[in-house]
Design goal:
438 residues, Growth Hormone, Chain: A, mainly alpha, 21 helices
């Protein structure tokens, strides 16, 4: 974020209560990403389930999120941001609570799927609502959102470990309680938001994948996410640590994700460009997964490589999402939904596949397959090298200036959420504000 656009600390903190209510909900929402990591081994042993059955908690959550991404803009363009946001929060509260009250792995998997639907609706509108409600300008709202994102990613595993050390049900009930507080605060404090001036087509994200730039970046993200969620969904099993110990391991991982997403990625991009930064980060992540594969039976190696992977993941998440926005010739809401759909499919299927590979072979194989998938991501990305160079120069794949989709700085700011959806929703919110002023 450039210095001339950076908010002062006082301006950033002097926000309406509604902004803090939604920002708090963002923290809790992003906690859900790593919340279940520390309790995966406990669920496996206490509910008599195999690792592949337990990893379905990731698969159901992410696959439903992926499919729901196709329709979130369609929903929010008809209901408005506040109603969509509240709908997502209600769904998360209900299904997180039901997951905590479950008695079997299959029940938890099913309720995590419902949780994924709520999360897709929430992340599709949360940043847009913060931007529309914040005082002190766009940049201050982005900083708040980035802070919520980083805090949630880092704190999720730690909270999961602390509550999971008491009972595996604790993290689910904890999220349900915190989200209920955020829901009440949002309903009371957030003013109604206008609907966008123009509704979004349900088929638009699928049709957008016909554009080579968007398809290339989406497939790159699919293979990269296969490696990412292999690590995240399967690594807790061979470690053999307690819930609280796993919580601290993934807390360290989450800190690096947050730091390198917000600070590291922009600096690398400014110095080396998008393509070379992505090649380097993806290549190092593949090496990291290969090291996990070779020494999967060494606890110290696993812990160190998992924590270090947070740096590569933070860079990749931030730059791949930004590249999507820069190379795609379609509107950002459509590009973000299409990209989120493809990437979450890879992330959702990988943990289950990793569990199955471990059952049929050994614990080394899932990480080796994950490393190979990331190498494929590099190869796919290399087919779009010129496209990325043009994007750095300010052109999309059709040769149009990036200014037609928003300035490079705006795009860079709006992709603070590397899990898709939310940055795109800003466009609809700003369209609605503009229409309301006419």
């Amino acid at each position: 974020m450039s210095s001339h656009n950076a908010p002062t600390t006082t301006g950033m903190l002097a926000q309406p209560k509604a902004v803090y209510a939604v920002a708090f909900a963002c923290v809790v929402s992003f906690m859900g990403i790593g919340l279940v990591d520390p309790i995966l081994p406990a669920l496996s042993s206490q509910l008599d389930a195999t690792p592949s059955q337990v990893t379905l908690l990731f698969t159901s959550y992410l696959v439903v999120t992926a499919v729901a991404m196709l329709g979130t803009n369609w929903v929010s363009s008809r209901l408005g941001a506040k109603r969509t946001l509240i709908s997502g929060l209600v769904i998360i509260v209900v299904f997180a609570g039901l997951a905590g009250a479950s008695d079997t792995v299959n029940q938890i998997v099913g309720f995590r799927a419902g949780w994924g639907l709520g999360n897709a609706l929430f992340i599709a509108t949360s940043l847009a609502v913060i931007v529309a409600s914040a005082s002190g300008g766009f940049a201050g709202a982005i900083v708040l959102y980035e802070a919520a994102l980083g805090l949630g990613i880092a704190a999720g595993p730690l909270l999961g470990g602390l509550l999971g050390n008491i009972s595996w049900r604790g993290p689910f009930f904890g999220v349900a309680t915190l989200m209920a507080v955020a829901l009440i605060a949002t309903v009371v404090l957030l003013d109604p938001t206008p609907k966008p001036a123009r509704p979004t087509s349900l088929l638009a994200p699928i049709q957008a994948l016909r554009h080579r730039g968007l398809l290339t970046m989406s497939l790159t993200a699919l293979f990269y996410n296969w490696g990412f969620f292999t690590m995240m969904g399967f690594a807790p099993f061979p470690m053999g640590l307690s819930a609280i110990q796993l919580g601290f391991v993934f807390f360290g991982w989450g800190l690096l994700v947050a730091i390198f997403s917000v600070v590291g990625a922009p600096r690398l991009q400014a110095r080396f460009g998008t393509a070379r930064s992505l090649y380097g980060a993806l290549g190092l992540f593949a090496v990291d997964l290969l090291v996990m594969s070779i020494w999967a039976d060494r606890l110290v190696v696993l812990v160190v490589t998992v924590v270090v992977s947070g740096a590569f993941i933070g860079i990749n998440n931030s730059l791949t999402t930004q590249a999507v926005m820069l190379v795609s010739p379609v509107e950002r809401p459509v590009a973000s939904a299409a990209y989120g759909f493809v990437r979450f499919l890879g992330g959702g299927l990988a943990p289950f596949a990793a569990g199955k590979l471990a059952e049929h072979f050994d614990v080394h194989v899932p990480f080796a397959v994950g490393a190979a998938a990331v190498v494929v991501a590099v190869l796919v990305l290399s087919t779009g090298h010129r496209m990325l160079a043009d994007a750095d120069a300010g052109l999309d794949e059709d040769g149009h200036g990036a200014g037609e989709h928003g300035t490079r700085e705006d795009v860079a700011d709006e992709v603070a959420d590397e899990f898709g959806g939310a940055p795109a929703a800003i466009d609809g919110e700003l369209q609605a504000e503009s229409a309301g002023r006419r």
